[in-house]
Specification:
Helices cover 0% and strands 54% of the residues. It is mostly beta strands and 118 residues long. The strands form two sheets. Strands 2, 4, 5, 6, 9, 10 and 11 form a seven-stranded mixed sheet that branches. It is globular and about 40 Å long.
């Protein structure tokens, strides 16, 4: 059974930090975090390949860090210095290649809410 389960969401103030985790029931070449803010489309946030190459959307570069623990099939998103604009539901997703296109991802979690207050 394919499972993708996110955790670690919650409320945080600007200047704080939060770490999201994503556990999968399978190994995947490429893992990514997306987010969807109220009234907005879902957007790519960060991705990491099996060789641990990473990519980020411009708005989170230098503040967020994606990493993975391959033996544990776990991906993390370290959110440092979050801002209110980072408030969104964060989703973890798996793909067979490095990509930012939602259609390329074959497995998704249900999401975890992150709320950033000033």
């Amino acid at each position: 059974q394919v499972q993708v389960v996110e955790s670690g969401g919650g409320s945080v103030q600007t200047g704080g930090s939060l770490r999201l985790s994503c556990v999968t029931s399978f190994s995947s070449y490429f893992m990514a975090w997306f987010r969807q803010a109220p009234g907005k489309e879902r957007e790519f946030v960060a991705g990491i390949s099996w060789n641990e190459a990473t990519s980020y959307t411009d708005s989170v570069k230098g503040r967020f860090t994606i990493s993975r623990n391959k033996p544990k099939n776990t991906v993390y998103l370290q959110m440092d210095s979050p801002i209110p604009e980072d408030t969104a539901v964060y989703y973890c997703a798996a793909a067979g290649k490095p990509t930012r296109e939602e259609a390329d991802f074959h497995a998704w979690g249900l999401g975890t809410q992150v709320t950033v207050s000033s």
